Amino acid sequence: MIEAAILATISARLDAALTGHRPPAHALRVDGHAVGFVDGLRAARLGRFPDLFRRDGDDLVLADGLATAEARSAALDGAARALAAEGALTAWRGERYAVRTSFDAPPLFHLERAAARYFGIHTFAAHANGLVFGPAGASPRMWLARRSPHKAIDPGLLDNLVGGGIAEAESPPQTLRREAWEEAGIASVDVAEPIATLTIQRPVPDGWQHETIFAYDVRLSDAFMPHNQDGEAVEHRLVDFAGAARLMANVEGADVMTIDATLVAFDCLARYGWPAPKPTPRKVP
Questions:
Q1: pLDDT tens-digit profile of 128-156?
Q2: Angstrom distance (rounded) from CA 16 to CA 20
Q3: The pTM is what?
Q4: Rounded to whole angstroms, how far apart are CA atoms 145 and 143?
Q5: Helix, strand, coil fractions of the chain, as percent rounded to 5
Q6: How far is Cα 265 from Cα 243, in angstroms, rounded to an integer?
Q7: Does position 176 have pLDDT exceeding 90, yes or no?
């Protein structure tokens, strides 16, 4: 049984990280849509790309001459590369996100992943809880991964077994399949169960994180052992739900789990019947 105090600590940690935050004051607008949010310093820097943005009150509006997704993507790529050269971005990924008004809408433009939080765009990710149930009556367990200390975001922290951003032209299942192999050596996730859609909005050191996570459960056998393929995970740990909760609560003060992974894993505990207060924010349509 998970101690009530541990559950309350996890809930408080999530509430502190994820609630009460308003987007930065300056919206980035394309075709009348607010597609990103930046603070005053970043707005001032982006304003120094006169061929790219014009000011409209507090907002930055993409130049009228950039009328196609291709033209916008090329112009914004130039700005992102200039920011990267200044050291304003995290490590360059060579991977782009599609920027849309909603996940199923056509892209307004594509943007290098390293610039996503600087521009405060809405990103999408797929995560999976790797679950082992064993024989009837056995305590359920959860696989966790430790991120490489060389990762650009949250280096060295604990994470869900599988998780990654949804790149341009990918669907959530495609991202899950790719990440499951790269991060854990899982050859097939055909039985993955989509279980929640969770959204995070919060300030982070590199800008504004606005991310929707498509969360899945993947049931694994007792014999399964994760094998990382791409160097992005350096350790795997199989823990029972009570142990996972202690890690989410960070009670030892050393094995910190990312906020994203904590949200996904805590939702999992709640769904499997532990007397957990529901994570915040909750599922969205």
A1: 999 999 777 678 899 999 999 999 899 99
A2: 8
A3: 0.92
A4: 7
A5: 30, 30, 40
A6: 12
A7: yes
